[in-house]
Amino acid sequence: MARITASVYTSHVPAIGAALDLGKTTEPYWQPLFAGYDLSKRWFAEQKPDVVFLVYNDHATAFSLDLIPTFAIGTGARFEPADEGWGPRPVPPVIGHPDLAAHIAHSVIQDDFDLTIVNRMDVDHGLTVPLSLMSGQPAAWPCSVIPFAVNVVQYPVPSGRRCFMLGQAIRRAVESYGPDLNVQIWGTGGMSHQLQGPRAGLINREWDQRFLDRLIADPQALSRVVHDDYVREAGSEGIELVMWLIARGAMADVNGGSAPRVVHRFYHVPASNTAVGHLILENS
Ligand code: DHB
Ligand code: FE
Questions:
Q1: Ligand 1 atom showing the smallest separation from residue 240 Cα
Q2: Of ligand 1's atoms, which has the minimum distance to the CA of residue 125?
Q3: Ligand 1: which residues within 6 Å by Cβ?
């Protein structure tokens, strides 16, 4: 039977991908940030998951105002890195897991969550930067990846509560899949950041740290935080953090099991215009 063994949470700032691709990781500006992922890369290489279910948001790359799926699951066999204006990142294609993705789509839709099925799309920095942070610059990504895109760009966006409950449904789906697979679920985006308007550059360290505390210890209550609070406290793009609640909702302790082990916690300011947060939780 497939199992969700761990969840990973990380910001997905595009400049991090550029720093990696352009060989700048040891520069003084970037070194402390990449150092925060050294343990994560070792841990990820040891864990050897078969599949990462990667929750991210598309930044008007594969989708646009023409078509705005709230939740979209990538059921294809392969997803190419997107051209976001400077050419595609020089990273490997993403190899999907069509059979597990189709099973999850079936189970989650029967469980009352309406997903959009996507057989073909390119994936942007929201997905490739977390893969780079966790695995460096391999010739091929070390495992299959099921892209799961959430609309946090164009309102109305889903509530934190809905995201948390969706994570619980994704757990039920994965754990009802027959083949033995080690599956991780990742939530990406955040932490506090605002990219436009008079408050551009907003960082709220206290709020971010409290979010990490609550994500670990009291995710159910955290899931009830409303959009206005995210936007006021964490900036307009801080709303990306609702995606972390999908990953957290898929962990054992909020589905009748025991509390996760905190493998790693990291927080760094700044990376481009944002605060970077990172957490690894392992099911026991
Ligand atoms: C930036 C873009 C993002 O999507 C994000 O999550 C953080 C930062 C940026 O353009 O700097
Ligand atoms: Fe983003």
A1: 6
A2: 4
A3: 12-15, 59, 189, 193, 195, 237, 240, 272-274
Cα atoms found within 13 Å of the Cα of residue 275, Cβ hemisphere only: 26
User: What is residue 201's predicted lDDT score, i.e. its pLDDT?
Assistant: 96
Q: Does residue 284 surpass a pLDDT of 90?
A: no
CA 13 to ligand 2 centroid distance, Å? 6
Cβ neighbours for 213, distance < 8 A, ≥ 6 positions apart: none
Residue 179 CA, chain-centre distance (Å), reads: 24
**Residue 3 burial (CB count, 10 A):** 17
Q: Are strands 182-188 and 3-10 parallel, antiparallel or unpaired?
A: parallel
Q: pLDDT, tens digit, for every residue of 201-252?
A: 999 999 999 999 999 999 999 999 999 999 999 999 999 999 999 999 999 9
Is residue 193 part of the annotated active site? The answer reads yes
pTM: 0.98
Whether residue 106 lies in the annotated active site: no
Ligand 1 pocket mutation pick from 152, 154, 237, 268 by most atoms within 8 angstroms of CB: 237
DSSP structure string for 240-271: GGHHHHHHHHTSGGGGTSPPPEEEEEEEEEEE
